[in-house]
Design a protein that fits this description.
The chain is an alpha/beta fold and about 230 residues long. It contains seven helices and ten strands. It has a single domain, classed as P-loop containing nucleotide triphosphate hydrolases (Rossmann fold).
Length: about 230
Protein backbone atom coordinates (compact mmCIF):
# COMPACT_ATOMS: atom_id res chain seq x y z
CA UNK A 1 0.00 0.00 0.00
CA UNK A 2 1.31 3.43 -0.95
CA UNK A 3 2.49 5.54 1.97
CA UNK A 4 2.32 2.76 4.57
CA UNK A 5 5.28 2.75 6.95
CA UNK A 6 8.02 0.50 5.58
CA UNK A 7 11.15 1.46 7.55
CA UNK A 8 11.41 3.01 11.01
CA UNK A 9 14.75 4.08 12.49
CA UNK A 10 14.91 5.18 16.12
CA UNK A 11 17.94 6.68 17.91
CA UNK A 12 20.30 4.75 15.64
CA UNK A 13 23.98 4.81 16.57
CA UNK A 14 26.79 2.98 14.79
CA UNK A 15 30.34 2.92 16.15
CA UNK A 16 33.35 1.23 14.57
CA UNK A 17 36.42 0.30 16.65
CA UNK A 18 39.66 1.99 15.57
CA UNK A 19 42.63 0.78 17.55
CA UNK A 20 41.75 1.32 21.19
CA UNK A 21 39.18 3.99 20.29
CA UNK A 22 36.03 4.11 18.19
CA UNK A 23 34.61 6.12 15.29
CA UNK A 24 30.94 7.15 15.34
CA UNK A 25 29.62 6.68 11.79
CA UNK A 26 25.96 7.33 12.67
CA UNK A 27 24.79 9.49 15.54
CA UNK A 28 21.20 9.35 16.78
CA UNK A 29 19.39 8.88 13.46
CA UNK A 30 15.58 9.02 13.50
CA UNK A 31 13.72 8.41 10.24
CA UNK A 32 10.54 6.93 8.80
CA UNK A 33 10.47 5.81 5.15
CA UNK A 34 7.14 4.87 3.59
CA UNK A 35 6.28 2.34 0.92
CA UNK A 36 6.76 3.70 -2.59
CA UNK A 37 9.19 6.47 -1.72
CA UNK A 38 11.94 7.52 -4.14
CA UNK A 39 14.40 8.91 -1.67
CA UNK A 40 18.11 9.31 -1.08
CA UNK A 41 20.75 9.86 1.56
CA UNK A 42 22.86 12.75 0.31
CA UNK A 43 26.14 14.04 1.64
CA UNK A 44 29.92 14.02 1.26
CA UNK A 45 32.11 10.94 1.63
CA UNK A 46 32.24 9.88 5.28
CA UNK A 47 28.84 11.35 6.12
CA UNK A 48 27.34 7.92 6.94
CA UNK A 49 25.28 7.30 3.77
CA UNK A 50 26.56 3.82 2.98
CA UNK A 51 26.57 2.74 6.63
CA UNK A 52 22.90 3.70 6.95
CA UNK A 53 22.06 1.90 3.70
CA UNK A 54 23.86 -1.25 4.88
CA UNK A 55 21.98 -1.32 8.19
CA UNK A 56 18.63 -0.96 6.40
CA UNK A 57 19.73 -3.80 4.12
CA UNK A 58 20.60 -6.09 7.07
CA UNK A 59 24.24 -6.17 5.98
CA UNK A 60 25.29 -4.48 9.23
CA UNK A 61 23.78 -4.00 12.68
CA UNK A 62 23.50 -0.88 14.85
CA UNK A 63 25.55 -0.31 17.99
CA UNK A 64 22.42 0.99 19.70
CA UNK A 65 18.94 2.13 18.77
CA UNK A 66 16.64 0.21 16.45
CA UNK A 67 15.99 -0.23 12.72
CA UNK A 68 12.73 -1.88 11.69
CA UNK A 69 12.35 -2.96 8.05
CA UNK A 70 9.04 -4.53 6.98
CA UNK A 71 8.21 -5.17 10.65
CA UNK A 72 11.57 -6.93 11.22
CA UNK A 73 13.96 -5.47 13.79
CA UNK A 74 17.36 -5.64 12.06
CA UNK A 75 19.33 -5.80 15.30
CA UNK A 76 17.40 -8.89 16.46
CA UNK A 77 17.62 -10.96 13.25
CA UNK A 78 19.75 -14.08 13.11
CA UNK A 79 22.10 -14.44 10.14
CA UNK A 80 19.57 -16.77 8.51
CA UNK A 81 16.64 -14.41 9.09
CA UNK A 82 18.63 -11.49 7.66
CA UNK A 83 19.51 -13.56 4.59
CA UNK A 84 15.84 -14.43 4.04
CA UNK A 85 14.85 -10.75 4.29
CA UNK A 86 17.48 -9.82 1.70
CA UNK A 87 16.59 -12.71 -0.60
CA UNK A 88 12.84 -12.14 -0.59
CA UNK A 89 12.45 -8.38 -0.44
CA UNK A 90 15.64 -6.42 -1.09
CA UNK A 91 17.65 -5.55 -4.18
CA UNK A 92 21.18 -4.15 -3.79
CA UNK A 93 23.22 -2.01 -6.15
CA UNK A 94 26.78 -1.91 -4.86
CA UNK A 95 29.23 0.81 -5.85
CA UNK A 96 31.85 -1.91 -6.37
CA UNK A 97 29.44 -4.04 -8.51
CA UNK A 98 30.13 -7.33 -6.65
CA UNK A 99 29.64 -9.34 -9.86
CA UNK A 100 30.60 -13.02 -9.82
CA UNK A 101 33.65 -13.25 -12.12
CA UNK A 102 33.11 -16.86 -13.25
CA UNK A 103 29.54 -16.15 -14.42
CA UNK A 104 28.54 -14.32 -17.59
CA UNK A 105 26.18 -11.34 -17.63
CA UNK A 106 23.03 -13.44 -17.98
CA UNK A 107 24.07 -15.73 -15.10
CA UNK A 108 24.97 -12.80 -12.83
CA UNK A 109 21.55 -11.22 -13.32
CA UNK A 110 19.82 -14.60 -12.98
CA UNK A 111 21.50 -15.44 -9.66
CA UNK A 112 18.91 -13.83 -7.30
CA UNK A 113 16.14 -15.72 -9.10
CA UNK A 114 17.92 -19.05 -8.61
CA UNK A 115 17.87 -18.40 -4.87
CA UNK A 116 14.10 -17.94 -5.11
CA UNK A 117 13.63 -21.21 -7.03
CA UNK A 118 11.77 -19.54 -9.90
CA UNK A 119 11.13 -21.71 -12.98
CA UNK A 120 13.53 -21.58 -15.94
CA UNK A 121 11.09 -19.91 -18.36
CA UNK A 122 10.17 -17.19 -15.87
CA UNK A 123 13.84 -16.64 -15.03
CA UNK A 124 14.77 -16.25 -18.68
CA UNK A 125 12.04 -13.68 -19.33
CA UNK A 126 12.84 -11.71 -16.16
CA UNK A 127 16.58 -11.61 -16.96
CA UNK A 128 16.01 -10.56 -20.57
CA UNK A 129 13.59 -7.84 -19.42
CA UNK A 130 16.11 -6.55 -16.87
CA UNK A 131 18.95 -6.50 -19.42
CA UNK A 132 16.70 -4.64 -21.84
CA UNK A 133 15.99 -2.05 -19.13
CA UNK A 134 19.72 -1.33 -18.82
CA UNK A 135 20.56 -1.69 -22.53
CA UNK A 136 22.78 -4.77 -22.32
CA UNK A 137 20.97 -7.42 -24.35
CA UNK A 138 24.05 -7.74 -26.59
CA UNK A 139 26.31 -8.65 -23.64
CA UNK A 140 24.50 -11.69 -22.21
CA UNK A 141 27.46 -14.06 -22.75
CA UNK A 142 30.22 -11.65 -21.68
CA UNK A 143 32.12 -12.21 -18.44
CA UNK A 144 32.64 -9.29 -16.02
CA UNK A 145 36.32 -9.05 -17.04
CA UNK A 146 35.17 -8.21 -20.58
CA UNK A 147 32.98 -5.31 -19.49
CA UNK A 148 33.72 -1.64 -18.98
CA UNK A 149 33.06 -0.05 -15.60
CA UNK A 150 29.82 1.46 -16.88
CA UNK A 151 28.65 -1.88 -18.28
CA UNK A 152 29.47 -3.62 -15.00
CA UNK A 153 27.44 -1.00 -13.16
CA UNK A 154 24.48 -1.61 -15.45
CA UNK A 155 24.70 -5.38 -14.87
CA UNK A 156 24.65 -4.72 -11.12
CA UNK A 157 21.56 -2.55 -11.56
CA UNK A 158 19.81 -5.23 -13.64
CA UNK A 159 20.64 -7.86 -11.01
CA UNK A 160 19.14 -5.69 -8.25
CA UNK A 161 15.92 -5.06 -10.16
CA UNK A 162 15.38 -8.45 -11.84
CA UNK A 163 13.24 -9.90 -9.04
CA UNK A 164 11.25 -6.65 -8.75
CA UNK A 165 12.01 -6.37 -5.03
CA UNK A 166 10.00 -4.41 -2.49
CA UNK A 167 13.03 -2.20 -1.72
CA UNK A 168 16.03 -1.32 -3.89
CA UNK A 169 19.07 -0.01 -2.01
CA UNK A 170 21.40 1.80 -4.40
CA UNK A 171 24.89 2.93 -3.35
CA UNK A 172 26.13 5.50 -5.91
CA UNK A 173 24.40 3.61 -8.75
CA UNK A 174 25.44 6.10 -11.45
CA UNK A 175 29.05 6.57 -10.31
CA UNK A 176 30.51 4.96 -13.44
CA UNK A 177 27.81 5.89 -15.96
CA UNK A 178 27.79 8.68 -18.52
CA UNK A 179 24.93 11.20 -18.50
CA UNK A 180 22.81 9.40 -21.13
CA UNK A 181 23.01 6.02 -19.38
CA UNK A 182 22.43 7.63 -15.99
CA UNK A 183 19.20 9.25 -17.12
CA UNK A 184 18.02 6.07 -18.84
CA UNK A 185 18.62 4.00 -15.69
CA UNK A 186 17.00 6.57 -13.42
CA UNK A 187 13.95 6.78 -15.70
CA UNK A 188 13.68 2.97 -15.56
CA UNK A 189 13.83 3.12 -11.78
CA UNK A 190 11.16 5.83 -11.75
CA UNK A 191 8.94 3.59 -13.88
CA UNK A 192 9.34 0.64 -11.48
CA UNK A 193 8.66 2.99 -8.59
CA UNK A 194 5.44 4.20 -10.20
CA UNK A 195 4.16 0.95 -11.69
CA UNK A 196 5.20 -1.55 -8.99
CA UNK A 197 5.37 0.80 -5.98
CA UNK A 198 8.99 -0.29 -5.47
CA UNK A 199 10.71 1.76 -2.78
CA UNK A 200 14.09 3.15 -3.88
CA UNK A 201 16.67 4.41 -1.39
CA UNK A 202 19.89 5.87 -2.77
CA UNK A 203 23.19 6.84 -1.20
CA UNK A 204 24.62 9.48 -3.50
CA UNK A 205 26.28 12.82 -4.04
CA UNK A 206 25.57 12.75 -7.81
CA UNK A 207 23.52 15.76 -8.92
CA UNK A 208 21.96 13.67 -11.71
CA UNK A 209 20.45 11.31 -9.13
CA UNK A 210 19.51 14.08 -6.71
CA UNK A 211 17.35 15.78 -9.36
CA UNK A 212 15.18 12.65 -9.59
CA UNK A 213 14.66 12.23 -5.85
CA UNK A 214 11.26 12.94 -4.35
CA UNK A 215 12.83 13.19 -0.90
CA UNK A 216 16.37 14.23 -0.03
CA UNK A 217 17.79 13.31 3.37
CA UNK A 218 21.06 15.19 3.92
CA UNK A 219 23.72 13.72 6.21
CA UNK A 220 26.80 15.31 7.73
CA UNK A 221 29.13 13.55 10.17
CA UNK A 222 26.62 10.77 10.74
CA UNK A 223 23.71 13.08 11.55
CA UNK A 224 20.60 14.05 9.56
CA UNK A 225 20.89 17.80 9.00
CA UNK A 226 18.03 18.28 6.55
CA UNK A 227 15.03 16.27 5.31
CA UNK A 228 13.28 17.74 2.27
CA UNK A 229 10.38 16.53 0.13
CA UNK A 230 9.20 17.76 -3.23
CA UNK A 231 5.97 17.09 -5.02
CA UNK A 232 5.66 16.67 -8.77
Amino acid sequence: MKNSQLIEINNLVKDYPIGGDSFRALNNINLIIKTGEFTGFVGPSGSGKTTLLNIIGALDTPTSGSTTVMDKKIEKLTHKEAAILRKEYLGFIFQTYNLLPVYNVFENVEFPLLLQKITSDKRKKAVNDALEWVGLTDKVKSKPSQLSGGESQRVAIARAMVKKPTIVLADEPTANLDAANSHHILQTMEKLNTELNTTFIFATHDDKVIKYLQRKISLEDGTVVKDEEKWV
